[in-house]
């Protein structure tokens, strides 16, 4: 017994050392991991929380103030789980083509959660579901309250621009375990999904100060996310889709600017296309299917009665889940008009985009028949995973003082803490100068 306890203690010590070294990677949260009891409670609590939405009748098409302020409290042995704005996120998941059953399955499968160890300066904990589809990230109380305050605007942004690059937040919860402080966390789709063939990952802020990650020795199996200075010498080659990316980056960053937000990141992942995925000639039938998907949604049976934002993470074995069909059509129209159309309610019936002017105004693109299509774009040689994350940092007094201090310390250099207007412009400039 003493030897067993000593062995467990050594394993925990080694784990803590790995955390201290700030190595980037994914590690299974097994029975010897400090987070194992927490993740078991999360699985059980989230399963019951989603089960409540499954058993609840379909939400009405127009969300109410009560939906945005809703709070569901569920007691369990040893902890309490709370779900915030549940009806809103349920409808948003439906709009993305994510069924409640598949969402529940990812969150509560018997497979172990994974911990992602980040070099982020925040003290947040990052967990991945075992299928790597969903991220769970701890947030401060202030960040969660800010998200709930802007939630209506966040939803409206996706109604106006269904192909937005912004991270897809699928739920907000808190868990209070016995004799522990309340933990808030959000659930979001992973930008880097599926990740099996991704060969490079970057976190871009458009500046240089503290934006270098020292690569691991050659042959290391540690998963790393690099930064701006590591990216130098690379380019995102999108050909005719470049204009769409420039416009959507502008739309999304201007939205964040208007929220007085900064310090968000543009995630970029690279994946080499197989030879049979390059320069494919599309049949008329295939193009019609993809165009319908891009304009009207994925056609999922669960969303056939509501406006669908085509961002489905497909179930295994579905007909559209064909990796060999993942290449973007080179003839995608240039949808860069700034003209807006009236917002459409998520869940509103008869919501089909009726003419090309709506498509142009919403800056839609021809989506690939691929998992996670809203974050996937194909160039001539590479597949790119692109998304904007970490959208909760407000430019308040603390950040203004940080800006003043960094202005003196890094005089003449580009650092991360600048005004939201400057931050948005700088990230747009980075995309413009690093794409062809």
From TrEMBL:
Gene Ontology MF term list: 1-phosphatidylinositol-4-phosphate 5-kinase activity; ATP binding
UniProt cross-references to PROSITE patterns, sorted A to Z: PIPK
Annotated region described as Disordered, given as residue ranges: 296-335
InterPro entries to which the protein is assigned, alphabetical: PInositol-4-P-4/5-kinase_C_sf (IPR027483), PInositol-4-P-4/5-kinase_core (IPR002498), PInositol-4-P-5-kinase_N (IPR027484), PInositol-4/5-P-5/4-kinase (IPR023610)
Biased composition (Acidic residues): 313-327
Keywords: ATP-binding, Kinase, Nucleotide-binding, Transferase
GO biological process: phosphatidylinositol phosphate biosynthetic process
Positions with biased composition (Polar residues): 296-307
GO CC terms of this entry: plasma membrane
Every PIPK domain range: 19-435
SUPFAM superfamilies: SAICAR synthase-like (SSF56104)
Protein name per Swiss-Prot or TrEMBL: PIPK domain-containing protein
Source species of the chain: Engystomops pustulosus (Tungara frog)
